[in-house]
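Entry type: protein chain
Record version: 2
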Amino acid sequence: MSESAPVVLVADDDAHVRRAFERLLRSAGYQVETFGSAGELMTRSAAVDAPVCVLLDLRLLDLYGLDVQRRLDASVPVVIVSACADLNVAVGAMKAGAFDFLAKPVDVQVLFDATASAVAHAKTLYEQRKQYGELRQRARLLTPREQEVMALVVIGLMNKQIADRLGASEKTIKIHRARVMEKMQANSVPELVRLVRRLDSGPPPVNRSLSLGDCFV
C-alpha cells in the first residue's frame, strides 16, 4: 500500500462543529484539515496527493453539500453529516454516491467507525488508481506497432500468425514482442493478458452501495 498518510477533510459552516470534529479525529490519530466553504474544500482536495476522505455537511455557505460531493474527484469517499435526518435527504445522498450518511448529533463512536471505514476505502482506491496510472504510463511507452503486436499476442496468436497478419517478418515480430513484454513489465503472456484486461476495464470503481439501513445511526 501507499506510504502517503491519509487525510480527513472536514467541511462544515459551523466553526464549533469543525473544531469538535478536528479535536476528536486528531485524538484518534488522523491527519485532519477543516474548511468552512465548498470552494476551499474542493481546492484542497484536488491538491492532496494522498488517500483522502471528506466529512461533508450539507449546508455550506457557498454550495449545497450534494453539489459539492458531485464535483469532488471520484476517488474521494464522502461521508455526509447532516442535522436533517429526512429519508429523502438520505436517499439523495445515496444516489449522489455518498459513502455514508450520519445524522447530527453524531455519536463519537459512530463518527470514529464511519471515518475508519472511509479512510480504509480511500487507501484502497488511492493505491488502485495509482497502480492503474502506472500501468497506463507503461502502455504509453509502446510504439503504435508494439501496440498492434500486443493486441494480437493477448488474443493468442503466435509470432508467425502475427507476422502474417501485419505483413512483417517473424524475426521482427519477436523483437516487437520482447519490447512489449519489457515495457509492460510482464513476465509471461498470461500476465500480459491480465494487465491488458486491467487497462481495458478502466479505473477501479469508486463508492460502495449504501443500504437504507446504513443511512441512519
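Comment: The first strand starts at residue 7 and ends at 11.
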